[in-house]
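Hi L.,

As promised, HTH araC/xylS-type domain-containing protein:
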Amino acid sequence: MEFVTIGREVHSGYRIPLFFTEDESCIENTVSLSRWGFILIEKGSGIISSGGLHTPFTSPVVLCINEKEVVKLSSPSDISMKSVYFDPLVVNSKFNFENVRHAHTDFSATEEQDLYLLQPFIGSGSKSPGLFTIDTANAQHITKLLRQMNQTLVSQSNFHWPCRARSLFLEVLILLSKLIHEEESPPEEDADPNDIANQVLVYLHTNYSNKITLNELSRMFHMNRTTMNHQFFQLTNLSIIDYLVKYRVQIAATLLRDTMLPISEIMERVGFHNTTHFWRMFKRHTTLSPSSYRKQNCWM
């Protein structure tokens, strides 16, 4: 098996090195496949072995493997996992297995932003794979995105299916990079990971495509708007709405430069349902309109 998706009728013969599997019996050998692996273990426990190290885990976790790592799953108990095997060029056609590991002055600023999404695979090193514990809500959101990606790869229903499949995987990588960054950031003194601000943050990361208002969040988390916003600001240095808009624009910018999906589709995907508002917020954060940003930064 090549672990590649091949176009049938629409883009017949087109080969995209992006492949989804729900095989729960093993983790594929990425060395022999010349692929990277993104594995979501959404249920169960076991031991991840690589480079002589054996790391026990309890779900949900994400495992990021590069093409130089041999990783094995042992002592599995009630495991349920979803895996994506891919080539880094799926993120940006300029990337290959070698140049992503070294600083290149010929990478543009936006290419560096794309490269940041691959750090969990590059930075995992040769001694142990990148194993990241995540919460249930984020695991469920990643599962949803991966299922949509697989459905797109299987159905190949219209002209944009390669970009749409890649865009869903990009959303997964953006979320993972956010979760890792937050995990590595030093916590505030007496910070409680279960406090309302953290719960709101998880909600934003998993529901950004929906309409979200402070009144809705206030009712959902049983806290008045002012107190909730104050706690959230202490955690992120941004108000709830400012954080939400910034996250939506980050995803939109990635999809604009790394896919050719219609701008209207991207706008809806990230939770903007008014064109004027989307253009105004996008320009506020990037200094460019969405169309100008794509014209200046899209590599496709």
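The first helix runs from residue 30 to 33.

Thanks again for sending the construct details.

K.
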